[in-house]
Amino acid sequence: MGNLDDERAMYLAIAMTPGIGPHRLATLLQACITSLGAHSAPFSFLSALPGFSRAAATAVREARVEEGYRLLRQAEEMGARVMTLLDSDYPALLHTIGEPPPVLFLLGDCGLLDCPAVAIVGSRDHSPYGAEVCRTLATAAARRGIVVISGMARGLDAVGHVAALDAGGGTIGVLGNGLGVVYPAANRALYERVAAQGLLLTEFPPGERPSVYTFPRRNRLISALARATVVVEAASGSGALITADAALEQGRDVLAVPGNITSHTSVGTNRLIRDGAVPVLEVGDLLGLYPEADGADKSDKSDGADEADEADRNRRTDEPPEPDLTLTPTEQRMLAAMGTTPALVDELAAKAQVSVPEALSALFTLELAGRVEQWSGGRFARASPARH
Fold first, then answer.
1. What pLDDT sits at residue 17?
2. Are residues 372 and 380 in contact, defined by beta-carbon separation less than 8 angstroms?
3. Would residue 293 count as lying in a domain?
4. By the 8 A CB rule, do 175 and 145 touch?
5. What is the pLDDT of residues 264-323, one digit of tens each?
6. H-type helices in 154-213, by residue range?
7. Do the beta carbons of residue 163 and residue 134 sit within 8 Å?
8. Which residues form the domain of 180?
9. Dihedral (Cα; 75, 81, 84, 86), 10-degree rounding
10. Are 184 and 122 part of one and the same domain?
11. CB-based contacts of 168: which residues, under 8 Å, 6+ apart?
C-alpha cells in the first residue's frame, strides 16, 4: 500500500479510537499535519497538546493502521463508501457546524448530499393527523426535488422517508448506529429500501450498536444536513425537540406544525411555535424556503389525469366533489360539507356530523393539500379550482 493509503487508514484508525473525538483530532492534525505524523510523534509532545491527557496520548500512539484498513474493507464489502472531513466532496453544510464528524459511512446515492434538503421529524407515538401532515409535507417536498432527511426511527421518521420515496424523490436516513445494524428491527424493509433508492448516513463504524449517547449525535446531523427542520408532532422531551434545538444552534430554520392543545403529541410543537418557530399552516410555508425549487410538481401526469383536471375546472365550484379515496372518511365528509362561501368550524362540523376537534384536524390536512382555504375569523371554504 502507498503512503496515501496508509495516511487515510491511519486517519480512520485514530478518528475511530475511543476518547479521540472531533476536537482532539482537529488539534492533533493542526499540530502534526498528518495522521501518520501524529502516530509517530513523541508521547511527551502529544500529552502536552491542549485538551490531551496521558490516556489520550497513549490512545493515539496505540492506534494501528491495520484497523483503518479493516474499516475500509468492511465498508467496501457492504457496498458503502467512507468519506472523511478531508475529502473535497464532504458535505459543505457539515463544515459549518461545531465539531463536524471526522468520518462518514455512506450507503446509497451520495449525490443526494448535493441537493437542497429539509429535515422532517416527529414522534414515534404519533396521531393519524400527524401522519397525514408528515406525508403531505414530505410528498410536496420530494416532488419538487427537495431531499427529505429523517432519523429512520419508528413513527413519523418512517412516514416521511416512505412518502418521499413513494413520490419518486430522494431521502436520507441518518442512523444512530453503524451500517449493517437495523434499529428498530421492524424497519428492516425501510432500511433496505432507503439503501437502494436513497442514502443511509452515519458517523458510527459498521456494526456499532445504538445507545442513549448515539441518538443526540445523530439528531445534530439530521438538522445540520438540512436548510430547515420541520417538527410535525413531539411530546414533551421528544427526540425531535433535540433535533430542533440543534437546528437553532446551527443557524437553521425551524418550523413546527400546530396541533390540538389537548394532545400530548402536540405539546412540543405548540411550545416551539410559542417560542418563535415558524408555524406550518400550509405547504407553501415550507416550500417558500426553497426558491430554487421550480414549483412544478415532478410527479408524472397521464393524459387521463389532464382530462380529469379539465373536467374539474369546468365543474361548478358549489357542486359537492366526488369522493377522494386518498382522504379519510372524516376529511371527505368535511369537504362535502363545504362550499365556496366561508363558514365557521362549528357550523361545518355540525353539517358533516363530526366533532369540532375532528373537524379542525381534517381542515388542517385539507388546507395543507390545497383543498380548502382559511379565511379571516376562523372560517373555511373550499379552495378555488386554481388552487388544486
1. 92
2. yes
3. no
4. no
5. 999 999 999 999 999 999 999 999 999 987 555 655 543 433 433 433 333 333 444 444
6. 156-166, 188-197
7. yes
8. 110-287
9. 130
10. yes
11. 142, 143, 298, 299, 300
Task: Write down which residue in 254, 287, 320 finishes a domain.
Answer: 287
Q: Examine the domain organization and report whether 143 and 224 are in the same domain.
A: yes
Residue type, 301: K
Of 97, 198, 98, 89, which Cα lies nearest the Cα of 152? 198
Torsion, CA 331, CA 337, CA 341, CA 342, rounded to 10: -50
Provide the grid cell at 291: 426558491
* Judgement on whether residues 119 and 65 belong to the same structural domain of the protein: no
Whether residue 162 sits in one domain with residue 123: yes
Give mean pLDDT in consecutive 10-residue pieces for the chain, a chain of 388 residues.
Answer: 81 93 92 94 94 94 95 96 94 93 97 97 91 95 97 95 96 97 92 97 96 93 98 92 96 96 93 96 94 65 40 38 62 88 88 87 79 76 60
Only one residue has cell 397525514, namely 132
Counted domains in the chain: 3
In this structure, are residues 75 and 106 in contact, taking their beta carbons and an 8 Å threshold? no
Indicate whether 150 and 240 sit together in one domain.
yes
Which of the 8 DSSP states describes residue 111?
G
CATH code: domain of residue 379 = 1.10.10.10
Are 281 and 331 part of one and the same domain? no
Q: What is the pLDDT of residue 371?
A: 84
Q: Give the tens place of pLDDT for each residue, 16-28.
A: 998 898 899 999 9
